[in-house]
Structure to design on (854 residues):
């Protein structure tokens, strides 16, 4: 009985302590929050701000249009971004006004006598965030019918909700936190709004190139209509996480400055600092924000200096001494579609030979002879976001090193091999694939989601660096499980075979999942790496001027491809180019893949395949209702290029919009041509012209590789793009008439080049030479793409006139395309000098004077 009595007394005591120190303060805070929220939502001014913030996404329909490459971008992205900017302004005003009213009407003298000023600061801030949530709900309801009706079959409510909640709602909350913090620091309405304006302008100007610091206008370059957007939304979500931590820390710190006992800033802070938990929370949140900024998992740490090595042709002979020969690669890939991560195991069949002859073998590095392996150390290239979990050689642990030498979205993995002649090397790796850091504002490349998978080269598996590849018997095989309805497609000549439905009954029973069983696919290629796309693909075959074309596109674009007769567009390109340029070398018995991918603004090509961004397949683009080019509202030089095109390439070689347009091709002798300009700069009045442009790269850039020299002969203009743009213009002239071609191509070229020639630094090179190197590079990069896509086609147009007209120029191009190679292959690459020789012209003949633009 005594023991029971003591237990009862102790229990009562504990309950009283919990009641006094936990429950009562919490109930008081909740009561104040309910009263303050009710007061705020009964204010007319509050509802004026809420309704204006909910309606002002309309600004994104006409005036604020950063996204112009997809219907989802224009119907969802632009309104959400405009709502974030406009809504943040109104909520800053509402926040400053709400805090200032207590002081202006002397209400704080009464409330502070009843409750702690900290209680009032917390409840006011939370109630304003509640008002932001109400505003976001109103905006979602108001703009839902517009987005759903405009997008039609491709509308996704999940995407619609995700964009608004990731873009607009956090901006409103951040405006509340910052303005409340500043008011608690300064105690002034006007100064709070001035500082908020400066904070917003920093995001729109000085911080515009830093994806993590853009709080009011998060970087969102593109929203896919039919492919995945998970990577983009995750990136924005991380941006919001960073700012949530930073501003929550700032707001917590500002609580130390809440005025008490009629004292000023210093006196109040000296009293408030006694509540030790406030500075502790503020410092903890600040450190968390700094860590989040430094440890972001989305971008690699490549050096800012970009160097593109020229194409080097060399013999296929193997190096002297001991060489490691790779006879095959097998990858077991297990993507986590929910987390966007990959876990895989790659197995390499290796053998060691001394003085290996080069017959039937070549180095994995663009056909050049690799270095010998005297130290029995081999190297791989891998995405910097992946970690090597284990390495075994012949079932024994092998020493390996991650050099963490990020460069162009790849790092080097070194492995020490045993002295065995035959080696089975297994590398287990996984993680979240990063993107090249120059793509910070254009994130969304590697994608692993339930809607879309895009993993290219080192993003899929480690690529051998100093190996000899046995081309005659070599095979790259990969097994991967994908949800039913997701179809894998390989770039180039690779194939994908469905093995069947596999799902462990015990595992599914344990998880009690009702999701469809995954399908197991086997991917096969003759390259040492693969470029994988997977999504809701369908395909059919087209006989295009005797060439077997496999047309692969997203099933959601089936209606648009049928309505606009994409088969006829493809056939027209092949018929014209075959007649005027010549038949493709692989046309007899070969197959060309035309693949729609989840990107925007062009595409790229390699032998046996051409890919185009999905904006080329939308009904609005095909009907000419929208084009995102230089001659269209909202068009821009995106400068986004990709070198994933060629067999053996590694990663993306893409340059951000801030650095101007660029185009590069990395890879082995199979080559690759990429083009991701914004469409209209080469005429592009509709998506079929982008499609045509990428197909034409099979003639110019692939079947005929270009020597893209940077010498004075061509002033850096000579590339596959010039002849491809010119041929696209001639095709459109053939299909639509001279007036159409001149208006959408020649006039655009003339306008762009004329503006370039009018540039101050172009007219006064002596001032250009006096600029610092960085500024010279920025100016040159900003015009590089325009010159290749506009100035070079004008030079070709002038060459056409000088040689006697279109018919004579067609004969020259036909002879160039079908030329026989010299014994030493000195004419293998199509150089600018070789082109001039065929035309019997000099480089001075093609210079464009001002009279050419009159």
């Amino acid at each position: 009985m005594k023991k029971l009595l003591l237990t009862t007394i102790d229990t009562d005591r504990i309950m009283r302590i919990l009641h006094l120190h936990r429950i009562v303060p919490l109930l008081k805070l909740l009561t104040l929050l309910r009263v303050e929220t009710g007061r705020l939502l009964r204010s007319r001014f509050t509802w004026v701000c809420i309704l204006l913030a909910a309606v002002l996404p309309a600004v994104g329909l006409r005036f604020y249009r950063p996204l112009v490459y997809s219907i989802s971008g224009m119907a969802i992205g632009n309104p959400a971004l405009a709502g974030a900017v406009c809504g943040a302004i109104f909520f800053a005003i509402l926040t400053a006004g709400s805090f200032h009213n207590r002081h202006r009407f002397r209400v704080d003298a009464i409330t502070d006598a009843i409750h702690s000023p900290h209680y009032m600061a917390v409840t006011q801030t939370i109630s304003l965030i509640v008002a932001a949530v109400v505003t976001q709900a109103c905006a979602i309801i108001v703009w839902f019918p517009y987005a759903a009706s405009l997008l039609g079959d491709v509308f996704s409510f999940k995407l619609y909700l995700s964009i608004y909640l990731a873009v607009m709602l956090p901006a409103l909350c951040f405006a509340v936190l910052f303005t409340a913090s500043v008011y608690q620091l300064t105690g002034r309405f006007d100064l709070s709004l001035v500082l908020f304006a400066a904070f917003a302008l920093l995001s729109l100007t000085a911080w515009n190139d830093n994806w993590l610091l853009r709080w009011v206008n998060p970087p969102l370059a593109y929203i896919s209509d039919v492919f995945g957007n998970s990577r983009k939304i995750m990136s924005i979500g991380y941006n919001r996480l960073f700012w949530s931590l930073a501003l929550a820390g700032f707001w917590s710190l500002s609580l130390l400055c809440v005025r008490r006992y009629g004292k000023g800033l210093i006196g109040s802070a000296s009293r408030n600092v006694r509540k030790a938990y406030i500075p502790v929370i503020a410092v903890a949140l600040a450190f968390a924000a700094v860590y989040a900024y430094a440890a972001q998992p989305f971008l690699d740490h490549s050096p800012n200096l970009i160097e593109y090595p020229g194409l080097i042709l060399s013999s296929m002979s193997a190096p002297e001494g001991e060489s490691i020969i790779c006879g095959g690669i097998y990858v077991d890939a297990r993507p986590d579609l929910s987390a966007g991560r990959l876990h895989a195991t790659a197995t390499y069949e290796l053998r060691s030979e001394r003085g290996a002859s080069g017959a039937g073998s070549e180095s994995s590095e663009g056909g050049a002879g690799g270095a010998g392996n005297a130290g029995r150390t081999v190297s791989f290239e891998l995405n910097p976001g992946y970690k090597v979990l284990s390495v075994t050689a012949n079932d024994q642990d092998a020493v390996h090193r991650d050099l963490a030498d990020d460069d162009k979205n790849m790092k080097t993995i070194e492995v020490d091999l045993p002295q065995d002649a035959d080696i089975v090397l297994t590398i287990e790796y996984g993680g979240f694939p990063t993107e090249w850091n120059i793509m910070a504002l254009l994130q969304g490349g590697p994608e692993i989601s339930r809607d879309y998978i895009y993993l290219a080269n080192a993003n899929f598996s480690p690529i051998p660096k100093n190996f000899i590849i046995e081309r005659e018997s070599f095979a790259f095989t990969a097994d991967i499980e994908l949800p039913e309805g997701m179809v894998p497609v390989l770039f180039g000549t690779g194939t994908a075979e469905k093995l069947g439905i596999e799902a462990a009954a015990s595992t599914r029973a344990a998880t009690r999942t009702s999701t469809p069983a995954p399908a197991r696919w086997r991917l096969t290629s003759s390259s040492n790496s693969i470029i994988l796309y997977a999504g809701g693909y369908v395909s059919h075959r087209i006989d295009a001027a005797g060439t077997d074309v496999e047309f692969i596109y997203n099933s959601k674009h089936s209606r648009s491809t049928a309505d606009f007769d994409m088969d006829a567009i493809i056939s027209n390109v092949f018929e014209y180019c075959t007649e005027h340029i010549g038949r493709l070398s692989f046309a007899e018995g070969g197959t060309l893949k035309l693949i729609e991918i989840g990107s925007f603004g062009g595409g790229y090509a390699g032998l046996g395949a051409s890919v185009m961004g999905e904006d080329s397949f939308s009904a609005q683009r095909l009907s000419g209702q929208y084009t995102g080019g230089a001659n269209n509202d909202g068009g821009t030089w995106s400068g986004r290029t990709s070198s994933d095109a060629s067999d053996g390439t590694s990663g993306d070689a893409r340059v951000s919009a801030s650095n101007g347009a660029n185009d590069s091709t990395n890879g082995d002798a199979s080559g690759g041509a990429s083009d991701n300009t914004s469409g209209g700069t080469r005429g592009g009045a509709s998506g079929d012209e982008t499609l045509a442009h990428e197909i034409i790269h099979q003639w110019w850039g692939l079947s005929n590789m270009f020597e893209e020299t940077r010498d004075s002969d061509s002033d850096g203009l000579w590339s596959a793009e010039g002849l491809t743009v010119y041929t696209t213009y001639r095709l459109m002239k053939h299909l639509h008439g001279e007036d159409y071609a001149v208006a959408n191509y020649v006039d655009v070229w003339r306008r762009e080049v004329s503006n370039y020639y009018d540039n101050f630094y172009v007219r006064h090179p002596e001032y250009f030479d006096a600029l610092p190197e960085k500024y010279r590079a920025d100016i040159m990069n900003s015009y590089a793409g325009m010159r290749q896509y506009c100035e070079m086609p004008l030079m070709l147009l002038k060459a056409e006139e000088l040689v006697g007209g279109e018919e004579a120029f067609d004969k020259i191009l036909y002879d160039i395309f079908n030329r026989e190679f010299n014994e030493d292959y000195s004419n293998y690459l199509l150089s600018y000098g070789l082109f001039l020789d065929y035309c019997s012209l000099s480089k001075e003949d093609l210079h464009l004077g001002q009279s050419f633009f009159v």
The radius of gyration is 31 Å. The chain has a mean pLDDT of 80. Residues 2-41 form the longest helix (40 residues). The first strand starts at residue 322 and ends at 336.
